[in-house]
Prior knowledge:
By secondary structure, this protein is an alpha+beta fold. The protein has six helices and nine strands, in the order E-E-E-H-H-H-E-E-H-E-E-H-E-E-H.
Amino acid sequence: MGAGWAGDSAYIERRPGRTTFSARPDPGPPPLPTKSDRHTAILDLIDTRAVASQEELRRLLRQRGWDVTQSTLSRDVHELRLARLPTADGVRYSRSDGRGREDAGPTLDALLPQLVTAVDGVGELLVIRTPPGSAQTVAKALDAHPPSGVVGTIAGDDTILVVCRSAIARERLARRIRALAGKAPVV
């Protein structure tokens, strides 16, 4: 009495008075990689090396077996909330949540010239405009080291609302952000 595989595809089971043959179940094709797998690969790449452009990221993904279109990669970058940030070695993609490499936490001095497109405000409210997908990055940097007089920030995709304690604090912050960003004051 016994059972076992006969070759690669047949299983034989022997019992007194009876022998059973069965085929090995076909495992089927390997599972297709998922969007989550692709996102993990993208995050791994930007966490382990400086990636300056989507085309470079596409090339690196292709080397890992991922053949993605530019539009798919663009959506992935947006969904992962990646931002192109200036570093000592040039511009590179980074997580906007600040996780990853040690130098992934950029300062306002580094971010604002690249990511602030407009600054305006009224009363105690300051509105900062950024390119699409960059507001979270700038707001996180503001929240990491809040300027005096700031109550808090709310960030969308390309707009940040900064609530200040007074109109004077708002004007002081607006001047500082415009100076760091290299933007002329709104007249």
